[in-house]
Task: inverse folding
């Protein structure tokens, strides 16, 4: 069995991220792996982009607004991680957080691209379904499972 050296933890910025992060931290601690935490921001639709381009003709302003979306997501991700550590600091050594990143694009593709680029050995993510259908994976999770060449651990959401 190959060693697990790098784990990619994929989180949304909703309630499901705490369970996924907790499982990822536990697995990283158990294996000694470094942890990469990733959030993907879905690209804006072509219609929205065209509307923005028509109404905001100053390219630097438009680029600044697009960057602001990513910056706000990164800030939310950092706050979520701070909040997680404040409630889950049990004295055990924390795993090495090798990356805390936000990328934009189709989430399943971006997750696979990140995992490949950073030579991750495992991906951990939520089912993204709630209630009775929680045993089924959501669209992004299915897309990652379909494309992945490494193990994908799917954490059910409450």
Result:
């Amino acid at each position: 069995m190959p060693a697990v050296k790098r784990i990619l933890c994929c989180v949304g910025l909703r309630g499901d991220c705490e369970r996924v992060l907790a499982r990822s931290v536990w697995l990283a601690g158990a294996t000694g792996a470094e942890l990469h935490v990733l959030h993907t921001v879905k690209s804006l639709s072509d219609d929205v982009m065209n509307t923005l381009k028509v109404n905001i003709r100053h390219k630097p302003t438009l680029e600044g607004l697009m960057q602001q979306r990513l910056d706000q997501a990164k800030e939310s991700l950092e706050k979520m991680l701070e909040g997680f550590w404040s409630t889950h600091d049990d004295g055990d050594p924390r795993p090495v957080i090798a990356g805390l990143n936000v990328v934009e694009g189709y989430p399943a593709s971006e997750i696979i691209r990140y995992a490949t680029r950073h030579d991750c050995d495992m991906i951990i993510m939520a089912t993204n379904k709630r209630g009775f259908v929680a045993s089924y994976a959501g669209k992004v999770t299915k897309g990652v499972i379909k494309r992945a060449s490494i193990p994908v651990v799917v954490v059910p959401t409450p």
In short: The longest helix spans residues 59-88. Strands lie at 6-10, 34-41, 97-104, 122-126, 152-155.
